[in-house]
Queue: 4 jobs
Job 1
Amino acid sequence: MSLERLPHSLEEGQTAWIRIPLLGRIARLFPPFKGISALWKAEHHGYLPPHQFVDTQVSGPFASWQHIHEMKDDGTLTDKITYALPFEPIASLLAGGFVQAKLARMFRFRHRITGYDLARRDASFQGKRILVTGASGMLGRPLVAFLLALGFQVRVLLRHASADASAWQDVERYFVDETGEIPHAVFEDVYGVVSLNGESIVQKWDAATEARLISSRVDWNKRLVDACLASGFRPAVWVGASGISGYSPQTTLNDLRYDESTPLETNTFLGDLVQAWEASLHPLKAENIRVCHARLSVIMDESGGFMQAQALPVSWCGVLGIGAGTPPLAWMSLEDALGAIVHLLRHPSSEGVYHLVAPEVVSAKAFHQAWATALKMPFWGSLPAWVLYPILGRSMVTALMEEGVPAVPQRLQAEGFHFLHPDLASLFAHAVDIQNWREWLISKL
């Protein structure tokens, strides 16, 4: 499901256009089928700020649809939906139970996310402007939405002026010009910067790839910092993405744990990359800008990355790992990663290196077994890692799949950060959330 056109507000007569894929996961296997979809147009009315608005289907997949959104003063969110399927009563007999199961699962997820957002609002930071670079990535897009939900103003710096404006509703957009110049005005009246740039590391490593990985991280940060210092504007805080993969890797999970004081490995590609990535922000410290290095682990969310890459076989066949499954797998839920970044922006004493990882340290095999249990699917063991050598290269597969880092979030915990998903049980209760056989079946589609 994707938003084709966003309403400018919730006021009377505003419309939203939503594209609904009809073949679900099947379309991921067969790209020509991605175009098979339905366009849903909904119109807003009954707007009673801040307590209610109503959307009614003008055209779309239902015979009729009305959704009343109610928010009470105590923060309770209620959704009242009345709908009719096309070709009644046959449609209700054949698919009514499945539609209800789909809606129940969807709104449970929606209510959890709304609750997460409300719990992390802080009135003292509402209205402050945050600049996000790398906003088009797996972490960047939800971060922008999360910041807006918390009441921040958001500005993004994009590389291409052709970027779809509808994707950045309520967001200030600035662009790198044709020569690669970063406009100085992008830093004006900015409280904090979050720089998330970096080409995906999950690809075959060769000299050209390594050069791009360095350029998209180190060189970009240097250009961004230089532009900021030349602009005359000074944000209060800068949170820069980094990675936990620069430590000495382990092939087996044991009692060893790495906290933020653990030295990075030297004379290796990943160790040197992380050090250079973080060093590119050091000039900011001389300007009394509070700098936080967010060493990211594997971010877990079914919308992208690690979990989406395995979505098809996991949904249809059961869970299958890669390699021996013995290395430590450092992970963090998307919701906690977003919350941790906002914590670093808002916490006045946060500075230096932070591990964005969950408190529970697990092996890759334990992660896949827990995923299979949550999905009510079998765990088939693991494919040998060498099957991926021709595709992704031995060095990348070894570094990211046959080795791991037992990192712990010592500094976040010391500062009182509240993890929504501190362990696999809480992660999969949120990410999978299957409560009956109908929900299990629709999760495969």
Job 2
Amino acid sequence: MTVRAITPAPGPVCGTIRPPGSRSITNRALVVAALADGESALESVGLSDDTRVCAAALGALGIAVDVDEAARRMRVAGCAGRVPAGPKDLDTGDSGTATRFITALAAAGRGRYRIDGSPRMRGRPIQDLLDGLAALGVTARSEAGTGCPPVLVETAGLAGGTVRLGGAVSSQYLSGLLMAAPAAADAVTVEVAGDLVSKPYVDMTVAVMEAFGVEVQRDGYARFHVAAPQAYAARTYAVEPDASSASYFMAAAAATGGRVTVLGLARASAQGDAHFPDVLREMGCAVEWTDRGVTVAGPERLTGLRIDLNAMPDMVLTLAPLALLARGRTVIKNVANLRVKESDRLSALATELSRLGAKVEEYPDGLAITPPKTIRPAEVATYSDHRIAMGMAVVGLATPGIRIADPECVAKTYPGFFDDLDRLARGEAEPRPRA
């Protein structure tokens, strides 16, 4: 396993950057375009392990996806709602997004489909989605009986009807069902049982569906209705920059008292993580939105805070490392679903922040972090989790001695992350948008 030493920034981190396209939007656009009538061109896509594995799974399903890496473009030959028949074996690697979305998409086909992924993916839950598909007339089960992949889907298509779907573990189940719903034989209504986690990701799903011509009728986050059968309309679709990736560059400004502008990110973005600047403002940062993007300027010293991050749980991986540099305690609550992500992120953060000298209290649904007087140099384990690697790297810009184990894990969502972070820290010109 390789280790990457993070070089502290020579001064406050200042500069301008345009992150790659949103991985979350790219995968949603891929699935919707796959069901569309005609060929769609997806522009400014986020090229990463997650999006490549989703494109490859669609190809294995029989839906042609042409990927132009240099142009950051994907062309998708839509099936007009007629998913190629099985039997098919589909590999979704380490991508929870692709696994949940491809499972729902396969259920709209005919025949037998097997969806499997990495060893870690085999430990990530999918049972709520399988139960939802059963309500639509599909036989879908966990092959090992664990409620996790591998998944076997035997289907004659989605019948339509009303589904009651659990929302406490992941919003991806709901997103997958909604995107597949237009291919059903009759209208689909989804009622969410309990409180839905990661609500902004459902807003993102609905926005992408509507961009391709399918309206979703909804009652807040409790009930969703999609008319069927219908096909999405093929189109050219530009993917906006990834707000999750942008958060690390904003954090670099916050950690070092610098000033960073993220180009292309809109305040009205459907990405929930685009609200992370509001969190940084609560910690003492100055935030300015313009028609070019958002600028974050860090204070002399950050301030700890108490916050519910249920709407943007991935941002815990950006905020928690910043808590090491804050004055006072930071308490993060209502993010229990982080325990079933690429790693048990709450446990992993508690271990690694403690390694750097913080006092960390771990709760079932969050963390309380008391920063150390002095951050200890250490090699940070990343648990094959891209967001732990990226978030902890920011600490290394503000304090010496931080080393990141297995830095290659960032390829899951942002292969060029460390190069872009280094350039920004050195004050070089705006990095060219990259995969």
Job 3
Amino acid sequence: MNSGHKQPVSVLVVIYTTALDVLLLERSAHPGFWQSVTGSREDGESLINTARREVLEETGIDTASGQLSDWQMTNTFEIFTQWRQRYAPGVTHNVEHVFSLRLADRPPVVTAPDEHRDWQWLPWREAAERCFSWSNRDAILLLPKRPASGA
């Protein structure tokens, strides 16, 4: 089923600690672009499995070490022109599904250098300000309002 194009369906996974410190990653191809874990669904993969895979690939963190939650929230946004060649011709928008991974503390982070050049833990307000993506910023700003058991 894989046509060689990315699916315009993705996940955003905000990784944070119980103290509301948020993990951000800096994109290798775009220095200064800080974000949470993101990634496109592959083939017929479930969204929760996409979230698990992307967290492991991008950070080395196993989601079983924390509480992975599907927020049942989506964002639709226009794909940046410079990234559209990754998608099938005519695809201009992506639907992003929001998840979070709550951890007791800050585990070691191992990034894939072809995707991310740096990482940092920041208090939630600072992390929100640092994000280049409005949907990522808005999700981080919602963290303190999420129930502790369901975030």
Job 4
Amino acid sequence: MSLLTWKDEFSTGITQFDDEHKRLIGLINDLHAAMLASRSQEVVQDVLRKLVQYTQIHFRHEEEAFARTHYPQVAQHKAQHDKLAAQVQAFVKSDRGVNAHLSIDVLKFLKQWLLEHIEKSDKAYGAHLNAKGIQ
């Protein structure tokens, strides 16, 4: 059973970013599945590391598009990215990603953050990027 499912209302109107968001949802689901299956802590940590790495790649792609198109909300959006990256790095470096109860808290946090970020911040850039020729 998946923790998250992509819905069309999550769409930003930018194919690349929607595909990347789908991949992020998939990685969160992978983390959830590993935890439900009581996989080893090494497996859970590996999935969490992959999620962190892919999130960084996705953020870089968005920020590059913002720079190319002079997105007016770039500072606020980048600040949200930076804050999440710092929080997740703290989880990875601490035992919060290893302890089962705390891993559930990390998973809930990531799910909530991603959904709120897509629905509020990411959907806001769609019209701007579309107007600049990015589909």
